[in-house]
Structure formats: C-alpha cells, structure tokens
Amino acid sequence: MNPYYQQVAPKLRIQEKDRNVDRNLFPERGESPNKIGPTGVHSKGRFYMISKLENCVSILQIARINIEKINDQLSEMGKFLEKEIRFFPASNIPVSVVNNYLTERISNIKMISETASFQGKALLNGNCGVKSITKGKGLRFVKGSPHVTSSDEGGYPVKIIELPEYSGLIGNKAISAELLQYEELIIISDDEKEFKYRITKEETIETLIPNLQRGLHENGFNISVYKTKNNFLYFKHNQLGIANDFTGTSLKTQLISKYPGQPVTAKVGKNIMGEIGNEPTIGEGGYLTGLKTNKRTRGLTLYFDGTSTEQAGQIVGHVLVKQNGLVVPLDLEGKKAEILSLPSLTPELLATGIPNCSGFLNLKSIRVHSAEERKDALMLIYSSIKGLKSLNKDLVSKENYYVNLAVEMLRLTMKPKVAGVEILSLSKEKASEMAEQLKGMLSPQLMVESTM
How many angstroms separate the CA atoms of 114 and 109, rounded? Predict the structure, then answer.
C-alpha cells in the first residue's frame, strides 16, 4: 500500500455506499460503444443523468489512486537499481536477489492493474478501454484512445509505406594496432552532451569496443558500438527515427573522421510511414498513430521494430481491436455523449516499444544481469513513470470537466419555466445551494471514510 496513505489514514476505505454502477455506462456485448446517438435515458429523469456523471467521477478517482500505487512500485524499482546496485568493477548484490526484487514489484503492478475496480468493473486492465491483439512479426500494440472503433474478427490491416531506420555512423578506416597507437581521443556527441574517450597505450582492438560501450552508457548515450566484418567501427543509435542524430570524431587519425579532428555526422535515421485499417497515420521513430481525422483508428498507436522481412508498401500484419470504453452523457437530453477510455496498465503494455540494447519488449520482460541491462531497465521504468504522470494529468482534467458538467446540469434542472419574481429568486437560491452541495460531493479527491 502507498506509504502516504498508511501514514495519513491507515484504515482508509472507499466510501461507495449508495453509489451503484449504472450498467448503461457500459456497452452491451457485441455493441460498439462508438455508436453514440440519442440514448433515450432522458425518460428516466435528469437526476439519473447526473448520477451517471457521478459514477464516472468515482471511476476516475479510483483509477487515479491505483495509478499512484503503480507509480510507487515503479519509483521503488528505480531507486533500488539506481542507488543499491553496482556491477563495476564488481557486482555487490547477487543477480538472483536483484531479479527476485524486480519480479515481486512487477507482480504487484500486475495485481494492481487487474484488481483496480469500481463495483466489480475492472478499470486498468483494458476492460474499460481498448484491448488489442497484434498479428505480425515486429508489430506491437501500444495504446488506444476513446475514438478507436472495434475492428472485425480479421482486425485492421497494417501497411508499412516506408520502413523505419536507425541513425548510424561507420568509421572511415579499419581498426588496427597501428592506428590505435597514433590515436589519442574519440569523441561522440549529440545536441545535449559529449563523451570523450581517451585511448591509452594499453588499448587493444579487443578492449576498445567494450570500453567505448561502457563509457557511452555511463554518460547517458543510447548508442551501441560494434565492429563490422571488415573491422570498421560502427556506432548505432538504439532508437528508430530522424530525431536521434549524433556526431563522431577521431582526433589524430582517420579511425572515424575523414579529416582528423573534424566531426562526422551520423547517417540520419527514418521515421516509419504507414496505414492502419487503410487510414493514414503519423510516424515517429517506429510508432504509428492514427490521425485525428480518422473515423476508426484515431489515436490508435502501434510500434513496428522494422524486423519484418516484408518490403515497404506491403501489409506486415493485422491488429484486432476491441473498444471497451464507457459511454458518458454530456447533456440532459442524452443526445450528446463521449467515450471514457482508460488504458491498460498491465506490465505487458507498460513501456512497450522503448528501444534498448537488452531486447526488453516491455516492463514485464526486464531482468538485470549487467550494467547495460540495469541501464535499459531504468530507461523502461522511467518511461513508464513519465507516461503515468501524463495520464494522471489527463484524468484530473477529465474529472474536473465531469464535476462541472454535473453541477451545470443540476442548475438547469432547478430553473422553472414559469414563475413569479419571488419564486424564481427562491428557486435560483435553492439551485445554487444544491449545486454547491453536489460540487462538494464530487470534489476531485476521492471520498474516503476513516475508521481509525
């Protein structure tokens, strides 16, 4: 449990009495929640519409509390790997202990995401959002949106028009003992930082690659170093796309630089280009996201790692999509509505598509046996924390919107169509009083009851 809640209210429990879930919030089996029109619920009463908004506020509040719990688990993992673990010059904690710790925290995240619920409705495992299955090598589902429409059983075809590429830099001359004897300094830099590796007299062809790799990782570069079959140095950025440029320099020789001391710019990578369900997307690195103008795939995000043997212009796979979002009324007549879609926060989907040298596909797959794997694990952990922070901000905004909408609906219900001046004045005062009471009930903090 979150230590904060343990300190403030050890026996907090969610006050959900008299707050039954309205089953009209959820689409019927086989019915797409995107098919929104007049709901006919107006006949059930205006306060019924307000109660539906109240349920949605409660759902958002419970989701946010459990998002905080997941964030706490991630923060503990990050602090443990950052401060407690050391691999160089020697490991200070057995890797079995390290990985048992990570496995336990990941299991906790899995449990939180699967059990977070409101009146029996799971909230953070895809049952209140988009669920998906991808078919195709190198193709992965990242997230959906409230605007995504369920696909048929065959799924949406995914067509790659232009394959993504990594930024890369190949040395100018092959590595040799003679070249290393004359070289003094290798410099790798990007827009934010610079790494200088000084070559000593003891440096050999065998030690150069691992020494460069360790130095790059320790200085925050997401770049891998290899030796080609012809003994040329090859530096490859581990993230696909055009936004990952860097330069390399060899100070005294042509090991990297064509002219010693002159920086050489890496070949710029490429962003992916493609379609989902025959609708256009925007590509960033290996991520495809449906455009805002799309009717079926708006906001649907997939990741393609470029490993498929299919050529550009071909269909590389399919994505089966099921929209499980909640239908939320936006007016008293039930003519306007929107979808409230909560993303799945299971470890299998957190940090999906974050490129790394260790081959981790998502948060669930992280294991730490070396300094490099620790660095990559931390990258996925901090990426997940960043995503949760952004999600929480969006949910707070949506929660406030629903609260204000419910208050406005209440005020509208209290306005008499025909009344004298005195009665009208009294009604307005009563409406304002009730509206303030409702706003207090639906405040952006979860109603809790202390049993201390």
Answer: 9
Kindly state whether residues 51 and 147 are assigned to the same domain.
no
Phi-psi region of 156 (alpha: psi -120 to 50; beta: other; left: phi over 0): beta
Specify whether 368 is located in the same domain as 435. yes
Give Cβ neighbours of residue 136 (< 8 Å, ≥ 6 apart): 158, 308, 316, 317, 318
Q: Comparing C-alpha atoms, which of 89, 33, 17, 23 is closest to residue 325?
A: 33
How far is 5 from 11, CA to CA, in rounded Å? 9
Residue 368 has pLDDT above 70, yes or no: yes
Helix (H) or strand (E) holding 320: strand 314-323
Residue 448 bridge partners (DSSP): 14
Instruction: Assess whether 94 and 195 both reside in one domain.
Output: no
Task: State whether 410 and 437 are in the same domain.
Answer: yes
Residues contacting 446, CB < 8 A, separation 6+: 14, 58, 61, 62, 64, 65
Asked whether residue 70 falls in the same domain as residue 206, the answer is no
Q: Residue 444 contacts by C-beta under 8 Å, 6 or more apart in sequence?
A: 61, 396, 399, 400, 403
Domain that holds residue 154: 130-164+271-323
Higher pLDDT, 102 or 409: 102
Residue 241, domain CATH? 2.60.40
Q: Provide CB contacts within 8 A for 91, sequence distance 6+.
A: none
Residue-level pLDDT at 410:
81
Are 252 and 176 members of one domain?
yes
Instruction: Give the pLDDT score at 335.
Output: 81
Cα 270 to Cα 196: distance, rounded to the nearest angstrom: 27
- Identify the pLDDT of residue 299: 96
Q: What is the pLDDT of residues 104-136, one digit of tens each?
A: 999 999 999 999 999 899 999 999 999 999 999
Angle of CA points 92, 94, 96, to nearest 5°? 155
| Best CA proximity match to 132, nearest among 324, 339, 264 | 324
**Which of 32-46, 79-93, 325-339, 355-369 has the highest mean predicted lDDT (pLDDT)?**
355-369
Strands 194-198 and 185-189, bridge-based pairing: antiparallel
Please tell me the least confidently modeled range out of 155-169, 201-215, 279-293, 425-439.
Answer: 425-439
> Cα separations (Å) of 219 from 121, 196, 225?
46, 10, 14
For residues 314 and 375, state if they share a domain: no
- Residue pair 304/319 in contact by the 8 Å Cβ criterion: no
What does each C-alpha distance from 158 to 30, 138, 298, 300 come to in angstroms? Answer: 24, 12, 14, 12
Per the structure, how many domains does the chain have?
A: 3
What is the pLDDT, as a whole number, of residue 243?
87
Residue 41 pLDDT exceeds 80:
no
Q: What is the pTM of this model?
A: 0.77
Q: Pairing mode, if any, of strands 130-135 and 314-323?
A: antiparallel
